[in-house]
Amino acid sequence: DLNITVTAQTEGNTTTKNYNTLCYANPTNYTIKYTAPTIYPSVNLTKLNYFETNTSSTGNVSTTVTSFSLNNLSESIFGSDTNGSAKLSVKINFDRNETKPVNPFDLNISSVIVTDTDSVDGNDTTVGNATFVYGRIHAYDIQTRQTSAPNPIEIEIYGKSSTNTFLNNKPQNVLYWYRNSDHDLLSEGNIIKGGFNAGENNNSIVPSSTITNGIQNVTVTASRNETVHLDISPWLWYTLKSSEIYNYDTNCTQHPCFQYQYINSLTETDTLSTPSKGVNSGTFSGSDFEISTPKNTTKKGIKVFR
Fold first, then answer.
1. Residues 39, 161: contact at Cβ < 8 Å?
2. For 76, phi and psi rounded to 5 degrees?
3. Which one of 8, 66, 151, 205 has the minimum C-beta count within 10 Å?
4. Is residue 67 exposed (0-12), middle (13-18) or buried (19+ Cβ within 10 Å)?
């Protein structure tokens, strides 16, 4: 979010409190200037989208340009009793594609220039920068003897450039994917609900109300084996196939799922001497290569013939 406060002032830098909807205020134009983002590889980053929430002004620009404009915004943004000030909230994002991940990149906004329709110019305002990342939800299967077990679900970001400092000190699980330890707000993307059937909200599946170090726990209460379907913020969905756009009401190819395996007693196939505590992710090391995500994988033990 780019939050902008606009204040009408006199030549003596005092606020013109009667610059409002009922008196003197005019429609205004805004030019947001920034440094064009440069990342490697940049082929998947093609556009920046923007939307001003108070006026519903929206549009997009190519990432090769260095500014975009919000033009002729109504004088109503100054209201009738705002004492010469108006507040704008501009949401900026890139054109995310479920199949085309993007490296972390910085958007350095240098200034916001304001002009009203009487050609009264405003002063440039230095803003700052924000880092944008491409994320996904990564769920792991869980095996447990507990009838109520938390499963730590990771929120990951994509990164192929080894020189990108945003990836520093972030655990790497598989090639090009890192747990986003900076992700700690539900509003940034989260697991909303879950079900044993796609599309449902089952009270036996409870996502935690907090995210810590890029992990959100999902507690499952069941004494049987189940597939757990997860409803998530749609911008955290990633797939290799363009036909598998996010949809919680369909099968596991279009939303994240994990297998919940409840073990009631020690058997031939369960030789664990202590109760399972679920599956936690480790830190990636060694070599890897890209393959399609396997579906319905069956875990098998090692048979010894005597």
1. yes
2. -65, -20
3. 66
4. middle
In the DSSP assignment, the letter for residue 174 is: E
- Owner of token pair 């479920």: 98
How many CB atoms are closer than 10 A to CB 30?
20
As a whole number of angstroms, the distance between CA 175 and CA 104 comes to 15
Report the alpha-carbon distance of residue 157 to residue 172 in Å, rounded: 10
Q: pLDDT digit string (tens) for 44-101?
A: 888 999 999 989 999 999 988 899 999 999 988 888 776 788 888 999 999 999 999 9
pTM above 0.70, yes or no: yes
Query: What are the pLDDT digits (tens) for 244-302?
Result: 999 999 999 999 999 999 988 555 454 444 444 443 333 333 333 343 444 444 443 34
**What is the chain's percent helix, strand, coil content, to nearest 5?**
5, 40, 55
Three-state DSSP state, 223: coil
Please tell me the distance from the alpha carbon of residue 262 to that of residue 202, in angstroms, as a whole number: 17
DSSP H/E element including 163: none
